[in-house]
C-alpha cells in the first residue's frame, strides 16, 4: 500500500517549475517521477496547471484517496483514484502534471517493491524483445526556437542500426555532422529547446543539410540512417492555410508538398503534417504515402483513445505519438498504445520539449515494444533517457 506521497516543484530544462512526485509504500518501496511540459501543445491535451496550483489541488483531493488505500502495484487503481479525485475529463482540477507525476512515481515504487526494473514491471513476462529506434532531433525551429525553420523538427531515424546503442550514437553523429555542415556553410546556429540546431535557414536548406548529414554518417557507420519530420502543422495553421515564412499553403497544397517531400527525401517519418482538426486531410495523405512512411498523429491524437478511434475509423495516419502527460496517467497511456497496436498503428513514445532527468519513457517504450522513441539527441535531459535505454538493452538482452 502507498504510505505517503510528496509533491514538490523542481526545475525543467527550460528553467520552468514542474511537478515532481515521490511515492513511498508500506513495504519500503520508493518511486520518484516528474512531469514534462510541452510548448507546441495540442488543443485537446489534458490540462497542465501552474505547478503550485496543481500541487495544492492534488494534495487536497488526490493524496487522501491514495494513501493507506491503494496498492502502488495496482496501476489501474492508482489511476482510477486520480481520475476520481479530479472528477473532470481532462485533469483540469488536479492538473495532468500532478496526475502523471503521481501515476509514474507509483509505477516506479511498485517496481522497487518487486525489485524489478520499471520496464519489466510495466511490460510483464510476455514483453517482446524489440527495442525502439530512437528518433533524434537534429535541426529545428517552430515553437522551439525563434528565427529558425518553419518545420519544428528534422529528426534522424537510424532504421538500419543493429543495436540501440549504435542507433543512439549514430543520432549524435548526425547532430555533429549537421553542425559541421552549418560551419562549412558559414551559418552560425544556436540550439532550440530540445538541443537541436536552430539555424536561420529556410526549410529547403534544412532538408539539404539533413540529407547530407545522414548520408555522411550512414557511410561512416555502415548502416542505413533515414530522416523524418515533426511539422507541428497546427502551430502554422491559421485562417484556413498553413503559414510559412515564404507564403501560405492551402490544405491541398500542404498534402501535395508533404507527399513530395516523402518521395524526394525518402522520409521515414512525418509527424503532424496537417492541422489537428483535419482528420480528412490526414486520411488523404495517408492514402497517398502511408505505405512508404509513417504518418504520425501527435496533436491530432493527444494519446487519447477516443481521438485515436476516430482516426482509425477514418484512416487518418498510421502511427501515434505517445506522451503520458498529454492524457495524465499511465493506464490511459497504455490504453492508447494497446488500441493503436490492435489496429496496426505504430507507436512512438515521446518526450516533451520541456523535460527533466526522469527516464520513465525509456522504460515505457521497452515495456510496450514501441517501434520508436522520440527523445532528442544531445542535451542532458534527453541523454538521460537515451543512456537509460542503453542500460536497459544491456540488462534485457
Ligand atoms: P512539445 O513539442 O513538447 O513542445 O509539445 C514536441 C512535439 O510537438 O512533438
Ligand atoms: Zn509533435
From TrEMBL:
An annotated Gene Ontology molecular function: magnesium ion binding
Binding, Mg(2+): 230, 271, 298
GO CC terms, sorted: cell surface; cytoplasm; extracellular region
GO terms under biological process: glycolytic process
Ranges for domain Enolase N-terminal: 2-122
Domain Enolase C-terminal TIM barrel span(s) in chain numbering: 128-396
Record organism: Halohasta litorea
Name of the protein this chain belongs to: Enolase
Entry's cofactor comment: Mg(2+) is required for catalysis and for stabilizing the dimer.
EC numbers, comma separated: 4.2.1.11
Gene3D superfamilies: Enolase-like C-terminal domain, Enolase-like, N-terminal domain
Family label: Belongs to the enolase family.
Function noted in UniProt: Catalyzes the reversible conversion of 2-phosphoglycerate (2-PG) into phosphoenolpyruvate (PEP). It is essential for the degradation of carbohydrates via glycolysis.
SMART domains to which the protein is assigned, alphabetical: Enolase_C, Enolase_N
Pathway: Carbohydrate degradation; glycolysis; pyruvate from D-glyceraldehyde 3-phosphate: step 4/5
Compartments it resides in: Cytoplasm; Secreted; Cell surface
Positions that bind (2R)-2-phosphoglycerate: 152, 323, 352-353, 374
Keyword Isomerase: no
Cofactor entry: Mg(2+)
UniProtKB keywords: Cytoplasm, Glycolysis, Lyase, Magnesium, Metal-binding, Secreted
UniProt-annotated catalytic positions: 194 (proton donor), 323 (proton acceptor)
Keyword Cytoplasm: yes
Main location: cytoplasm
Amino acid at each position: 500500500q502507498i504510505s505517503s506521497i510528496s509533491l514538490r516543484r523542481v526545475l525543467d530544462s527550460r528553467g520552468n517549475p514542474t511537478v515532481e512526485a515521490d511515492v513511498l509504500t508500506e513495504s519500503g518501496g520508493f518511486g520518484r517521477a516528474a512531469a514534462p511540459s510541452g510548448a507546441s501543445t495540442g488543443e485537446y491535451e489534458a490540462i497542465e496547471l501552474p505547478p503550485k496550483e496543481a500541487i495544492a489541488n492534488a494534495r487536497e483531493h488526490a493524496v487522501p484517496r491514495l494513501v493507506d488505500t491503494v496498492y502502488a502495484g495496482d496501476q489501474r487503481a492508482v489511476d482510477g483514484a486520480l481520475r476520481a479525485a479530479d472528477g473532470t475529463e481532462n485533469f483540469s482540477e488536479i492538473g495532468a502534471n500532478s496526475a502523471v507525476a503521481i501515476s509514474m512515481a507509483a509505477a516506479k515504487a511498485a517496481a522497487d517493491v518487486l525489485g524489478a526494473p520499471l520496464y519489466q514491471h510495466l511490460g510483464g513476462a510476455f514483453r517482446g524483445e524489440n527495442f525502439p529506434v530512437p528518433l533524434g532531433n537534429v535541426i529545428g525551429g517552430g515553437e522551439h526556437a525563434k528565427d529558425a525553420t518553419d518545420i519544428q523538427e528534422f529528426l534522424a531515424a537510424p532504421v538500419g542500426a543493429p543495436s540501440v546503442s549504435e542507433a543512439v550514437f549514430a543520432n549524435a553523429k548526425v547532430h555533429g555532422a549537421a553542425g559541421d555542415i552549418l560551419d562549412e556553410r558559414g551559418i552560425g546556429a544556436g540550439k532550440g529547446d530540445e538541443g537541436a540546431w536552430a539555424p536561420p535557414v529556410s526549410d529547403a536548406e534544412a532538408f539539404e543539410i539533413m540529407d547530407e548529414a545522414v548520408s555522411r554518417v550512414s557511410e561512416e557507420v555502415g548502416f542505413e540512417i533515414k530522416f523524418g519530420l515533426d511539422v507541428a502543422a497546427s502551430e502554422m495553421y491559421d485562417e484556413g492555410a498553413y503559414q510559412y515564412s515564404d507564403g501560405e499553403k492551402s490544405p491541398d497544397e500542404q498534402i501535395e508538398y508533404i507527399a513530395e517531400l516523402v518521395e524526394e527525401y525518402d522520409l521515414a517519418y512525418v509527424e503532424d503534417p496537417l492541422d489537428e482538426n483535419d482528420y480528412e486531410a490526414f486520411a488523404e495523405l495517408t492514402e497517398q504515402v502511408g505505405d512508404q512512411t509513417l504518418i504520425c498523429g501527435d496533436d491530432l491524437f493527444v494519446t487519447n483513445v477516443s481521438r485515436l478511434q476516430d482516426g482509425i475509423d477514418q484512416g487518418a495516419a498510421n502511427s501515434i505519438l505517445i506522451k503520458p502527460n498529454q492524457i495524465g496517467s499511465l493506464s490511459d497511456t497504455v490504453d492508447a498504445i494497446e488500441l493503436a497496436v490492435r489496429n496496426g498503428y505504430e507507436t512512438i513514445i515521446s518526450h516533451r520539449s520541456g523535460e527533466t532527468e526522469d527516464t520513465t519513457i525509456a522504460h515505457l517504450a521497452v515495456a510496450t515494444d514501441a517501434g520508436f522513441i522520440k527523445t532528442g539527441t544531445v542535451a542532458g535531459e534527453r541523454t538521460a533517457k537515451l543512456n537509460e535505454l542503453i542500460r536497459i538493452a544491456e540488462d534485457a538482452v
